[in-house]
Amino acid sequence: MTSDEFRKHAHELVDWMANYLENIEKYPVKSQVKPGEIFRQIPDHPPSDPESFNGLMKDVEEIIMPGITHWQSPNFFAYFPANSSLPSILAEMIIATIGAQCMNWETSPAAAELEEKMMIWLKELIGLPDYFEGVIQDTASTATLAAIIVARERITGFNVNNNGANSAGILKVYCSEQAHSSVEKAVKICGIGKKNLVKVPVKKDFSMDPEKLGEAIKSDKKNGFIPCCVVATIGTTGTTAVDPLKAIGVICRKNDIWLHVDAAMAGTALILPEFQWMLDGREYMDSFLFNPHKWMFTNFDCTAFFIKDAETLIKTFEVLPEYLKTRTRGQVNDYRDWGIPLGRRFRALKLWSVIRSFGKEGLQNKIRQHIQFASRLKELILKEADFEILAPVVINVVCFRYIPSGHSGAEINALNEKLNHLLNDSGRIYLSHTVLNDKYTLRMVTGQTNVTFEHVEKAWELIKRTARNMKN
Predict the structure, then answer these.
(1) What contacts 13, CB < 8 A, 6 or more positions away?
(2) Helix (H) or strand (E) holding 122
(3) In this predicted structure, what is the pLDDT of residue 472?
(4) Which residues lie closer than 8 Å to 445 by C-beta, 6 or more apart?
(5) Which end of the chain is more exposed for a tag (fewer CB within 10 A), N or C?
(6) First to last CA, the chain
């Protein structure tokens, strides 16, 4: 492709991008294809001769787009937001064009120093103590893994890094029953082991029970185990429950246990003064993460990871082969030493673009609006005798179910699962589910970038109509 061809196709592609976003509601929100349908349309062998970009775009429209679930649709209410925005998209175009590998300060000084400054901006926006230092990770799963590895090395005096997992004794990690599955994956990967993850029971609001945590730690210490790390959650995946940070922190401090806080989605709400209560007890935290790529209008991937003791983080991960030695080492942040990957994208640029384009007040207004939508949806649900709310509505997630009279618990679960599939298969909206106290629960997330309350109302009307028209 020549420079002139690139320029022509790039202009055409920007028009395609704008048209897609303007018309996104015309697509089925959830892809309607069957398993293998896309695979069978793609040739079994790569082409021998060059093919045109126009040909590629034709196949994107005819083959790929039917197999896309449209996360940026304002009718997407499933899982969690994976938000984009126009300023973020433009920044991604710059990032892709520059194509920098930002592993060291010297491989692109602007990338390292902008990242350092953006972490300072985010720290101010969400109200973290000044002594925290930040780095951008790819996902919350990676950041949680990094935190648990650092906790492992701190408690063992870096013995596992040097001598292997068998030298450390039996370490224990604690999280609530509602914590994200990435915690379980992390203990498996880092050698602590799945059986040494203690899932602490939750209270009625689905937040961790500190009393049960204390009992578990006391029992483990009595049996010769080594409590290593507690993962508290601000905004659990299922219900956005908020673990009581201060009570958990006091226990961690008393027992010399690393406290990591996962605020993957809900952390964005900390931009609002009225939600700073979620960080009550911040002085006990050792590490903290949230995802601007979820609810802060920044394209995936972009996880903000903060740590109180950056020296321990660096000591855990640094490896210095000859080819990576530089004259500036020790004077600057070489972020390759702040996590698992060596290679790093220039993610800070899209954060810079989003924060500057929205401004603090613009971000606050958007987030506050999404929270209000959830609150108003809750009130609509409470007015209906054949629906019920199953969890407190904390931020932007509403957990509910259909409860027609005359049915057993198992039958109601089956009806709600059927309702979920009918709604998603319609292509008009997309919901996901969880299970709370053995009840199949529908989850509706009002956090998509361009969602309005009109979208929420239309979705609710569709839910009611579909539920009541089902053959019970």
Answers:
(1) 57
(2) helix 109-126
(3) 61
(4) 77, 78, 79, 80, 81, 396, 397, 398
(5) N
(6) 59
Residue type, 77: F
Q: Which helix (H) or strand (E) holds 77?
A: none
What is the residue type of 86? L
Range of the domain at 139: 100-345
pLDDT in tens, 13-64: 999 999 999 999 999 999 999 999 999 999 999 999 999 999 999 999 999 9
Number of domains present in the structure of the chain: 1
For 27, the token pair is 């697509």
Tell me which residue of 411, 420, 472 sits closest to 444, measured CA to CA: 420
Q: Is residue 91 in a domain?
A: no
Give the type of residue at 46. P
Burial class (CB within 10 angstroms; exposed 0-12, middle 13-18, buried 19+) of 256: exposed
Residue 364 buriedness (CB in 10 A; 0-12 / 13-18 / 19+): middle
Question: Would you tell me the crossing angle of helices 348-382 and 453-469 to the nearest 10 degrees?
Answer: 50
In angstroms and rounded to an integer, the radius of gyration of the C-alpha atoms of the chain is 24
Parallel/antiparallel/unpaired status of strands 397-402 and 387-389: antiparallel
- Measured distance CA(470)–CA(312) in Å, rounded: 57
Overall pTM > 0.85:
yes
Cα–Cα distance for residue pair 205/297, rounded to 1 Å: 28
Q: What is the pLDDT of residues 64-80, one digit of tens each?
A: 999 999 999 999 999 99
Q: Under the phi-then-psi rule, with left for phi > 0, alpha for psi from -120 to 50, and beta for the rest, what region is 290?
A: beta
- Within a domain: 335: yes
The tokens describing 178, both together, are: 């509602």
Residue 284 falls inside a structural domain: yes
Q: Which parts of the chain sit beneath pLDDT 50? A: none
Taking alpha carbons only, the member of 130, 81, 128 closest to residue 278 is 128
Kindly state whether residue 22 falls inside one of the protein's structural domains.
no
| Amino acid letter, residue 171 | L
- For 387, other C-beta atoms within 10 Å of its C-beta total 19
H-helix or E-strand spanning residue 313: helix 310-317
Do 307 and 285 contact (CB within 8 A), yes or no?
A: no
